[in-house]
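pinned: reference chain
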Amino acid sequence: MKLKENIANILKILPDSPGVYRYFDNKGVIIYVGKAKNLKNRVRSYFNTKKHQYPKTKVLVSKIADIKYIVTPSEYDALLLENTLIKKHQPRY
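pinned: its structure tokens
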């Protein structure tokens, strides 16, 4: 499936940097905004887990069609950007 390949390719190139990641559904709508001190580890954690602890997380992962990220200079900057993007886009999850 093309979408799965897209996600796999994005996971391969994620940097080991702090930043903010956004998950999009198949309509291009932001469904989740998160921050990380290490983008590679945090974003991959959603896809490496066979069984998610919470049903809501499992549903979220099943709806992810695209991932975009923004690298920030620090974890603090990521926190501020995450807050701004959540207020602006009001994602479902």
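why pinned: The two ends are 24 Å apart (CA to CA). The chain has four helices and three strands.
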